[in-house]
Specification:
This protein is of the alpha/beta class and 376 residues long. It folds into two domains: 114 residues, ATPase, nucleotide binding domain (Nucleotidyltransferase, domain 5), CATH 3.30.420; 180 residues, no CATH class. The protein has 19 helices and five strands. A hairpin with a 4-residue loop joins strand 2 and strand 3. Helix 4 crosses helix 5. The radius of gyration is 26 Å and the shape is globular. The termini are far apart.
């Protein structure tokens, strides 16, 4: 748009309010309708995945966004205000069922929801009634793992202390200027509200400038500032320099969880499809956490419980086992595990295919023979 304005040169007049709300708006709607028709052709030809995302807006309304993904792209379908019915499983199921009918049941291959308890129940209900695949959002599930881990006392206390330090550093211009001087302009990553992963990334970022921060609070520059004599300033100095546990706890939190943050980055990336890698990534992450905790049970067991409490019921899906089994990039590595759990996931999906596929003799015989060979 900016390039177009620059090419036009001086004298460009923006459209009037009347134009924007009449023919320009109509042209925009017509363009979206044409795009919608193109997507519908792809859904019919290749099949599609319905994705839902529940969230709460600034007015505390519970909204559900519905998007449709196919080989062409992702298309935003609609948003529903479910404030009055968010806890009503039957009504939520009806919303999803109506979308499946609108898309054409024969075109819908999969349903992906977030990990709210009612959405999980609805997803399982859809699998039974509509015979469609349901999975929960991997990124949301891992983010909930990080949320659960952040509630453990050692993590919650350390995160709160770190937030106190960050608020003080970035809440005063003179302190921020002084920090920039000692860190050579290196910033500390500040946490966001929406993702618990950023809290651990903040701890990691803070740990990287541990020595400069210690030097700053021990310097004459700090002593000369009026803020250093305030109660808050003295508390912050005690945390950064004199607290024997703060930095060791920060290091523990980073080492024990940063690998799980990397998994979140992997599944939330658009570089490659995560389906064939999640199973391996989670196994590898557990090994890294155990190693970083020195193999001491009391250090990593509670973290593992928090991970498994989300992983096992929500994301430990046969589809992920199949993705791992059929991923040629992993299959020929030494780490590849052809364990019963993986094979059971494969057979579960094959049985489902056998029950749903049109029973053409050639396809049917081929799948049965393949399964028999694998079982041998």
């Amino acid at each position: 748009m900016i390039e177009g304005i620059a090419e036009y040169g001086r004298g460009l007049k923006p459209p009037s309010m009347h134009d924007l709300r009449t023919w320009i708006l109509k042209a925009g709607v017509d363009g979206i309708c044409l795009l919608y028709e193109e997507h519908k052709k792809a859904w019919k030809k290749y099949g599609c995945t319905i994705m839902s995302d529940g969230w709460t807006d600034g007015k505390n309304r519970s909204l559900i966004n519905f998007l449709v993904n196919s080989s062409v792209n992702t298309f935003f379908l609609k948003s529903i205000d479910a404030s009055a019915s968010f806890k009503n499983e039957q009504l939520i199921f009806k919303y999803f069922d109506d979308v499946i009918v609108e898309m054409g049941e024969e075109n819908v291959i999969q349903i992906v929801t977030d990990n709210a308890s009612n959405c999980i129940k609805v997803g399982k209900n859809i699998m039974e009634t509509r015979q469609r695949i349901w999975t929960s959002c991997a990124a949301h599930c891992i983010d909930l793992m990080l949320e659960d881990i952040a509630k453990l006392k050692i993590f919650s206390d350390t995160i709160e202390q770190a937030k106190m330090v960050m608020k003080f550093l970035y809440g005063h211009g003179t302190i921020l200027f002084l920090m920039s001087k000692y860190t050579n302009g290196k910033e500390i990553l500040r946490s966001a509200i929406t993702r618990f992963a950023t809290r651990f990334l903040t701890l990691q970022s803070m740990y990287k400038v541990k020595r400069p921060l210690e030097q700053m609070f021990a310097s004459e520059d700090w002593v000369s500032l009026p803020l250093s004599q305030t109660t808050q300033g003295k508390v912050l100095k005690r945390i950064v320099i004199n607290d024997p546990n703060f930095w060791s706890y920060v290091e523990f939190c980073v080492k024990s969880v940063v690998s799980l943050v990397s998994v979140l980055r992997g599944v939330d990336s658009e570089v490659r499809s995560a389906m064939g890698y999640i199973y391996e990534l989670m196994d590898k992450t557990k090994e890294i956490i155990k190693f970083n905790c020195g193999g001491v049970d009391r250090k990593y067991k509670t973290i593992m419980k928090k991970i498994d409490s989300r992983w096992t019921p929500q994301l430990h899906h046969p589809l992920l086992a199949v993705g791992f089994y059929l991923n040629s990039q992993l299959r020929y590595e030494k780490r590849f595990s052809d364990c019963d759990e993986v094979r059971d996931g494969l057979f579960t999906c094959m049985d489902r295919m056998l029950s749903l596929v049109v029973k053409q003799t050639s396809n049917w015989t081929c799948i049965i023979k393949l399964k028999e060979n694998l079982e041998l």
